[in-house]
Write a structure and sequence with these properties.
The complex is a heterodimer of chains A (about 325) and B (about 300). Chain A has about 325 residues and is mostly helical. In chain A, about 70% of the residues lie in helices and about 0% in strands. The radius of gyration of chain A is 26 Å and the shape is flat. Chain B has about 300 residues and is an all-alpha fold. Chain B is globular. Classes of the chains: A mainly alpha (about 325), B mainly alpha (about 300). Chains A and B meet through helix 1, helix 2, helix 3, helix 5 and helix 6 of A and helix 1, helix 2, helix 4, helix 7 and helix 8 of B.
Chain lengths: ~325, ~300
């Protein structure tokens, strides 16, 4: 985001070399801003109505004890008014250091962090490996590429059902494991294997995006750099370390950030893989959904409070991530 | 850096251009070619099998007529049939789901792209006061977990009597699609040379005129990418769709597919057939646009 402003284009249009007089420039800039604001107005309005207003309202809900029993609702023709009360920051206190805070929040929090870190690391490493393979001169690489993109092409909700068939007790994966005389884990019932399965499925779903993005990045690295490195006697590893990785940095920083955000918020994989059957394998997002919509009575206030906490975690992470990249004098594009 | 990314973003020319110079220089790669390329092929074949298998398996299971066939796949060979497909198409609300999925996804796409286009242009070309904050807001809305807006949206939509209506779901999806499209389109507009704007300006066009007459026609591929992205995002969304759509004729596919498995009964054979019916057109479409998709997304990303 910061880069965008430093880019040549911003300067070129923003300061036309100081040629016109100051007054003209002022008038010009006024005109330009006027247009800019008119152009962004629709999005500002939509964001205000569809994002900021619900967000503010959601935040207010977190300060109440709203649930499905005391919220406004309509039963038949009778309209029952909301009776929930303002209770301040009690929800947050309860979530973060209430009596069962560890079981409800912190254990899920730890698992969410592990899940995000493992998934993004696997996405990145496998994606980079495949991208490097596909970037060589190789017979049939277009064909490989088409097949490897497949998991991305098929909607997640479809593939997750495919995986559920395979992971079911007695499904093809366990049949294969038994044929090899290996233990057949209860993928969809045992907590450890549930987590294992979730990471596996999500990795499967997420690798193609990384692979294709990194392949684009690899192809944009100037090949004369490799030639120069070879002239200087750099080994294959050194070329990878000192040419490829730096060349990929801007793509990498973007896809890793996107990957973290998407994985942290990944709802479909876990929700569709387990439904309500895996309390220990829920990440914070699905857990928040469960609180608000998966149980009776629905706990709207706590669910919304989880949502706000999640958003806060992501915003803090992103700020640090950007600062860290900027400190390395590496510009994060987003 | 920015010049190289521009190349990648221009559809289809990034690859060949970057590769051609290295083509004659096969000396080093030629040396370890045999073992090296065998290993590469081996890894790629394994990876392709892993990528292909779950889908192929789903396809295979969809041909088994009994709901427990997925446990005894061997038996399917003797009795392969398209009965599941004809049942799904004739006896289930498949076409209702198709209609609602299309209405919701296309509605989101049209509104998202229409509203976001001018904004993408403005943030690509103009540095107005508040620009940084605005971009930050756009970024932050990308990371809204479903849980943040779900509860308040539910409240608001029930007050407006929009629960279980297409419009309600479209509005919800627009909260993510609009900033998303604006972001993507900014990346695409950045790759269109600024000289074109300047030429338009010299010829006396207003910024709106430049945008509408010069830039918009040039940006068609970018618009298509943004449209497709918001389409598949809305198409595959699960959480809001399963909470806000109550009547089973208004389910989107993401929800309808789950309805085959209830507490009492699990018609997995029908589910597999439906999944295949949904997946094939979407994947076919995906393959048509996939090259542009990637460049579109990384353009939005790497060029911010």
């Amino acid at each position: 985001m910061t880069v965008a402003i430093d880019r040549a284009t911003g300067k070129r249009r923003g300061e036309p070399g100081g040629r016109p007089g100051r007054l003209t420039r002022l008038r010009q800039s006024y005109q330009r801003y006027w247009y800019a604001y008119a152009m962004i107005a629709p999005v500002v309005v939509v964001l205000g109505v569809l994002v900021l207003y619900p967000l503010a309202r959601g935040f207010y809900l977190t300060l109440t004890n709203a649930n499905s029993l005391n919220s406004a609702r309509t039963i038949g023709v009778n309209r029952i008014e909301a009776t929930y009360e303002f209770i301040g920051f009690d929800n947050y206190a309860d979530i973060l250091w209430g009596p069962t805070a560890y079981d409800r929040f912190w254990s899920h929090f730890v698992w969410t962090i592990v899940w995000t870190a493992l998934c993004v690391a696997l996405h990145y490493v496998i994606g980079l490996g495949l991208a490097l393979l596909l970037n060589q001169k190789l017979r049939g690489r277009t064909f490989y590429r088409l097949i490897l993109v497949l998991p991305w092409a098929v909607p997640t909700f479809v593939t997750v059902f495919g995986w559920r068939f395979m992971l079911a007790d007695g499904g093809v994966i366990n049949a294969a494991l038994e044929a090899l005389h290996l233990p057949a884990p209860l993928w969809l019932e045992d907590t450890f294997w549930q987590r294992f399965a979730a990471i596996m499925v999500n990795t499967w779903c997420g690798v193609p995006f990384m692979m294709v993005s990194l392949l684009g990045g690899l192809q944009s690295i100037d090949s004369s750099l490799y030639e120069a490195a070879e002239m200087d006697g750099a080994s294959a590893w050194q070329r990878f370390r000192y040419v490829t990785l730096p060349g990929l940095r801007s793509v990498s920083s973007t896809v890793v950030l996107l990957g973290v955000i998407w994985t942290f918020n990944q709802f479909a994989v876990i929700f569709l893989l387990f439904g309500d059957t895996a309390p220990e394998a829920q990440i914070l997002v699905t857990w928040a959904y469960y609180l608000g919509f998966g149980q009776q009575p629905r706990d709207f206030a706590q669910s919304a409070a989880y949502g706000i906490l999640l958003l806060a975690i992501l915003i803090v992470f992103t700020s640090f991530y950007r600062r860290w990249l900027n400190r390395d004098e590496q510009q994060l594009a987003i | 850096m920015s010049t190289t990314t521009v190349k990648t973003t221009a559809p289809e020319d990034g690859g060949p251009r970057a590769r051609t110079p290295s083509a004659p220089r096969t000396r080093r790669r030629g040396e370890n070619s045999l073992a090296g390329s065998l290993a590469s092929h081996a890894i790629l074949v394994v990876a392709s099998l892993v990528a292909l298998f779950p889908i192929a398996w789903l396809l295979f299971l969809s041909l088994g007529p009994d709901k427990d066939d997925y446990l005894h796949p061997g038996r399917i060979f003797g009795k392969m049939t398209f009965a599941n497909y004809s049942y799904v198409l004739q006896e289930t609300p498949f076409f209702d789901w198709l209609v609602s999925t299309l209405v919701v996804s296309l509605g989101t796409t049209v509104i998202g792209v229409l509203i976001a286009a001018t904004t993408g242009y403005a943030v690509s070309r103009m540095r107005f006061p508040g620009y940084r904050k605005f971009m930050w807001v756009l970024l932050v809305t990308q990371m809204f977990p479903v849980a943040v807006l779900m509860v308040p949206m539910y409240e608001i939509l029930s007050e407006l009597k929009l629960i279980d209506s297409y419009l309600g779901l479209i509005l919800v999806y627009c909260s993510t699609a609009v900033p998303y499209c604006a972001w993507l389109l900014k990346g695409y507009f950045d790759t269109i040379p600024f000289e074109i704007d300047e030429a338009g300006r010299v010829d006396g066009l207003t910024p709106f005129g430049t945008f509408a007459r010069l830039i918009l026609p040039l940006a068609k591929p970018g618009l298509a990418v943004a449209a497709f992205y918001s389409f598949i995002t809305a198409f595959g969304e699960v959480a809001f769709a399963s909470t806000f759509m109550l009547s089973d004729t208004k389910y989107t596919f993401a929800v309808g597919l789950q309805s085959f498995v209830s507490e009492h009964d699990a018609q997995r054979n029908l589910m597999a057939a439906t999944a295949v019916l949904v997946a094939i057109p979407v994947s076919a479409f995906f393959y048509l646009v996939q090259k542009n998709l990637v460049t579109g997304l990384t353009a939005g990303g790497t060029k911010g």
